[in-house]
Amino acid sequence: MLQCKKTGRYAVFSFKVKFPPFIAWLSREENLYDRTEIWTLCAIYDRNGTLQKITAMLNGIEALLYIRYESKEYARQEIRKFAIQNADTIATKIQQCTDIVARLFIDYYCDGDNMDYHAVVGTAAQMESVRQNGFYEDSCDYSGNYASEYMEGDNRMLITMVRCAKGHPSENFQYAVEIMSKHIEKHVLGALHKTEDFKFICAEYD
User: Fold this and answer.
1) Distance (Å, whole) CA 165 – CA 193
2) Which of 44, 86, 42, 40 is nearest to 60 (CA)?
3) Given a cut of 80, is residue 179 above it in pLDDT?
4) What is the chain written as a DSSP string?
């Protein structure tokens, strides 16, 4: 079923389509890998017929599939705006930790096709365990040695935004990484209960 609704400068088309499981990765919250689901796609055009945005909706979860930027400068503004919102989401999760924190890791990854950005909290108790069982002198400075959950924002939307912007996706992603990491450092560190040897470590993993 196709529907069209005019909203000022834009025309919004929405239709339902049955997607096969191989694109089920669009929603991390839903386990879609073993069945076919009905998605509602929404395409937004301006008055000149230029496609502006495509989103997909399933069970109230919206995924951004495409966004058009008028210019490189506008793309940077939108990426920066979203990066700060994403950092605030991660910061809120970090601040829920009431334990004494010895390490705060920001891990990120980009190989052109795959991108990831998340935080990991290492408590004082966890670090002591790593220190006793670690094989290397700097074992305490690797997030993978801590049994903590990844604290993420909306990586899917971030990936779409940096891929749709002009320029190389890895450069756009790095731009967002720097904004998010500085924002988290500025707004989170002062709120944590930290050890004397606390470290904030932001690094790319492979």
Assistant:
1) 39
2) 40
3) yes
4) -EEEEEETTEEEEEEEEEEPGGGGGG-SSS--TTS-EEEEEEEEEETTS-EEEEEEEETTEEEEEEE--SSHHHHHHHHHHHHHHHHHHHHHHHHT--SPEEEEEEEEEE-SS-EEEEEEEEEHHHHHHHHHH-SSTTGGG-GGGS----EE--HHHHHHHHHHSSS-HHHHHHHHHHHHHHHHHHHHGGGS-EEEEEEEEEEE--
Share of the chain above pLDDT 90, in %: 64
Distance of alpha carbon 138 from alpha carbon 159, whole angstroms: 32
Question: Which residue type occupies 18?
Answer: K
User: Which residue type is seen at 139?
Assistant: S
Residue 73 has pLDDT above 80, yes or no: yes
pTM reported for the whole predicted model: 0.80
Q: Where are the domains of the chain?
A: 2-67, 72-204
Q: How far is CA 189 from the centre of its chain?
A: 20
> Residue 63 burial by CB count (10 A; 0-12/13-18/19+): exposed, middle or buried?
buried
Q: Say if residues 108 and 205 touch (Cβ distance below 8 Å).
A: yes
